[in-house]
Amino acid sequence: MSQQTQLLDSSQNRKTMLILEDFGRNLGLTFYALFALFPLVWMVICSLKADAEMYNTVFVFTPTLDNYKAVLLGTDYFKAFFQNLVVSGGAVLLTVVAGVPAAYALARYDFKKKEDVAFQILSFKFAPEIMVILPVFLIFQKIGLYDTYFGLIWVYQLITMPLLIWVVRGYFEDISVEVEQAAQLDGYRWFDVFFKTLVPLIKPGLVASGLLAFIFAWNSFTFPLVLSGFNIQTITITSLRYIASDTVHYGQVAVAALIAVLPEITARLFIQKHLVRGLSFGAVKG
Amino acid sequence: MPKLNVSHPDINYNEVPKNIRMRPYYIIAPGLLILIGILIPFVTAIFLSLTNYSFRLPHWKLIGLKNWIDTLTDPSFYHALWVTIKYAVFSTGTQMILGTVIALLLRKDTRYSRILKVLFTFPLMVAPAIAVLIWQLMTSNSIGVLEKLLNVFGVFGFPWASSHSTAMFTAVLIDTWVNTPFILLLVLAGLQSLPKSPFEAAEVDGASRWFIFKTLTLPMLKPFLYIALLFRLMASLQEFGIIYALTKGGPGDTLMNISLTGYMTAFQYQRLGSALPYLLVLWTIVNISAKFLVKRQRKLAKQAQGY
Questions:
Q1: Which CATH architecture has domain A66-279?
Q2: Which of A62, A197, A241, B94 sits at 20 to 30 Å (Cα–Cα) from B237?
Q3: CB distance from B243 to chain A under 8 Å?
Q4: CB of A93 less than 8 A from some CB of B
Q5: What's the predicted TM-score (pTM) here?
Q6: Contact call for A130 and B123, based on CB within 8 A
Q7: How far apart are CA B48 and CA B61, in angstroms?
C-alpha cells in the first residue's frame, strides 16, 4: 500500500517537474527572443514616428510615413541602394561563373596540390580585410580601379568566392559518381555532363549559397569604406551618414537601417535548409 | 598514382593525353586567378612596410626595419593588442555560451521553438554597421527605449558607447546580438546529428541530466563547437565594422584594436608604412590560431566518428 502511494507521488512529482521545466524553457526562450527581435521591432516603430513624437512617446503615437518620404525621395539613399545591388549582384555573378567550375574541379578531379589549393582559397576568409585593402587601395588608385564598379566587384570576390567554392564543392561531392558515369556512357561530353546532369542536381544548394554570398557582399563595410568615393556608394556607408550629421533625425536613421535589412531578411527566407551548411563553409551539413 | 577523375578510377595517369590531364587546372584557373590578383597586394604590403610610404609625401624610400621597430616599441601597439584580445575573448565567449544555452533550450521540438528557430537568425543577416545603427536607436539617451527601461530601475543616463567604462560592453553587446545565432545554428545542427541510443541507454541506467550533458552531449558536440569557435574567434580578432561605426575606436583609445589602429594610422595620420606592421602582426595571430583550431577540429571530428 505504502509503496503504491510512493509510486503515485513520484509520478506526480515528475509531472510537476515537467511543467516547471517547460515553463523555465519557454521563459528563457522568450527572454532571448526579446533580446534578438525587439531591436528590429523598435527600428520599425521608430521609422513610423514623427520627429516631434520621438522624444516623448514610447509605443503610443500617430504613425507617419514622412521619414520614408524623406529618405527615399530627398537624399541619395536610393542611388546607394541601387549601386549596392549592382556591386553585390555583380560580385555573386562573377563568383558563380568562375567559382562553380573550380568547386567541381576540387570535388571530382584528383590533381597535384589539390588540398593546398583548397586551403589557400579558404584562408582568404581569414585574412584581415583592412590589411588586404590598404595595398589594394594604392594599386587601384594607380590603375584607375578606385571607386569603380569593377574594382569593388573584384575585391568582393574575397568575400563571395571562398564561400561559394567550399560550399558548392560539398554539394558536388554529395552526388554519386555513378550519375556522371551513366551520363558519360550515354555519350555526353564532359561539359554536357556538367551542365545537363550535375548543375540541375546541385541547383538548390547553389542558389542558397549564392544568396548567402549576396548577403555577405551586401553587408560588406570595410571594402566600400576604403575603396569607394563619390561615384559608388553602398548602403552600409551611406546609412552611417544619417547618424553622423549634426541634427540626427532618428526616424530617418530607422528607415535607412530598415531598408538596408529588408533584402537580407527576404533572401534569408529562401535559404532555409541550406543555411547552416553555407555559414560553416560546408563543414556542418545541417 | 594520382587519379585523373573519380569517374575513371582505373585510368593510367601517364597514358592520358596532356590536354585532358591539365583539364582540372584549366577549370580551376579563372577562380584562382581572380583571387590571386587580389593577393598580389599582400606581397606589396610586406614590401611597403619597409618604406616610409605616405599619401602626403611625393617620394618614398626604403627605411629598413624602422617601421617595425617603431611599432614594436610603441605603447599604443600593446594597448591595441590588449584591446584586440579582450574584445575577441569577451565577444566570442559570450556568444559561445549564450548560443549553446539557447540551442539546448530550442532542442525540444514545439511549434514555438520551430518559429523561433527562423526568427532568431534574422540578426545574423544584418550588416554589422547597420546593427550599430539599430542599437543606437535603442541606446540613445533621448529617444532610446532602453533608457526608459533603466529609468524604471532607477538608473539614469547610462552612458553606453560614450564612456570609457561601458564602451567595450556596448560593442560586445552589439556583436553578441548579431553573431549569437551563428553559434546557435551550428550547435542545433550538432544536436540533430547526435545518435539516439547512448542517450536512451543513459536514461535507462538512471543517469542525471547534468551527467548526461557533461559526459555525452558536450563531448559529442565538440567538433561543432570548434567550428563555431574557429569562425567567431577569427572574425572577432579582426573586428572593424562594429567598432568603427560605433565610436571609431573611441572614446579616447578605449576601443582601438589592431584593425582600427592600422586603419587610422594609414588614413587619418597618413602613414601607410607604419600602419602595415600592425596589420601584418594581426594577420600572423589570426593565421596561427586558425591553423591550430583547424587541426584540433579535424582530430575531434575523427574521434567523434569513432576512429
A1: Orthogonal Bundle (1.10)
A2: A241
A3: no
A4: no
A5: 0.88
A6: no
A7: 10
